[in-house]
Amino acid sequence: MRAFLLVVVLLSVFFVHPFREDGSELAVSLVSGAVFAILVVLAEFWFRRLEAKLMLGAAIGALFGAIGANMISLVIARMSLSSHTTSVSHILILIAMIYLGVFCGIYGVNNIKWTAASGLFSSEDSIRKTSKILDTSVIIDGRVADICKTGFLEGALIVPHFVLRELQQIADSADSAKRNRGRRGLDVLEKIKSTQCVMVQIVEKDYPDVKEVDLKLIELAKEINGKIVTNDFNLNKVAQLRGVDALNINELANSLKPVVLPGETMRVFILKEGKEYNQGVAYLDDGTMVVVDNARRMIGKTIITQVTSVLQTTAGKMIFGRFPDESENQNSSSQNSRTDRRYERRGPAPDSVEEEIEQA
Fold it and tell me: pLDDT digits over 16-47, tens only?
């Protein structure tokens, strides 16, 4: 940096000919060269903080600003103005147009969604390695849209044309339940496309020889070296057997559920009767099923149960607890009553440990 400053100052001196006897032009040249070099160094520090796309936008904007300033200067040159006024106006117009060009370039890069031109900033191989292929079931489920908002899914989200066709068939179904599910899936897709941090691509690729949609997804994932995002357990297993990576939304949700250990107590609302005798069933806020023994009589009430075991299955997590039965409650109440009568015979409760020892 010091060498650059020195070179610019020396060049500013050598390009001024001839020097005046009082050295005024020499002093002006030195100051002008130093100021110019400092401005260039400050611009370098500023550009280091910018991203590559912001620098590209600023450069393009500055170029168009300089072109616009030149065109305006040609118009001003035709006016009958003094040479001093014309020179000053040219400089001011050039500075103003370059500033506006840099501002417009950076603003445009920040606010334009670079979907079509994304290949300019990333190679096709890197996009393929991080591509996620959405299944019909995960689109209808809708949780993938919330995951996209958090920014945990990187790369392009690919929606094959045959998946869109299946969603449209479900939305046009005569069954009202299926029709609502299909329309929900289309709404979820629109919601994902409106997310700024996600790039959605519609792929027209189809496999006429393959009839099932799940097998078509596997073939597409093999071709582009992508991953399938689904919540279908069967598709997840088939994809793994065929060497294709699959991201299961249900497995992600299960891994994020709070950990409950045996021996802990928890407050639950008994909703219905269980399959086994004298069991009650409750559900946590995240949908986890809690099976409580001896809780059939507590249906419609909130109780405190002690966790006995936790079972992790592919479908989710199940928590088993136990609620004291009536005989245990009677034993505990009778024990408390005997303790109360013992203290009544002995008089009022002692104020300290020493008084209790004296009474004994």
Answer: 544 444 445 566 666 666 666 676 667 666 66
CATH number 1.10.12 given to 265-323: no
Answer for the pair 139, 185: CB distance below 8 angstroms, yes or no. Answer: yes
**217 C-beta neighbours (distance < 10 Å), count:** 30
**β-strands 289-293, 317-322 pairing:** parallel
Task: Give every CB contact of residue 98 below 8 A, 6+ residues apart in sequence.
Answer: 62, 65, 66, 69
Q: Which residues contact 138 (CB under 8 A, 6 or more apart)?
A: 144, 229, 230, 231, 232, 249
Q: What pTM was estimated for this model as a whole?
A: 0.46
Q: How far, in Å, CA of 141 to CA of 144, rounded?
A: 8
pLDDT, tens digit (0-9, with 9 covering 90-100), for 229-262: 998 888 889 988 988 888 888 888 777 777 788 8
Which residue intervals of the chain are DSSP H helices?
Answer: 2-14, 24-48, 52-77, 83-111, 124-129, 136-141, 143-150, 161-171, 176-193, 213-224, 233-241, 249-255, 326-346, 353-359
CATH of 119-255, picked from 3.30.429.10, 3.40.50.1010, 3.30.200.20, 3.40.50.1100, is 3.40.50.1010
Checking 76-85 for CB contacts under 8 A at 24+ apart, the result is none
Strand pairing category for 132-134 and 156-160? parallel
Of 17, 48, 195, 57, nearest to 113 by C-alpha is 195
Token pair of 70 as six digits: 């030149």
In one-letter notation, the amino acid at residue 233 is F
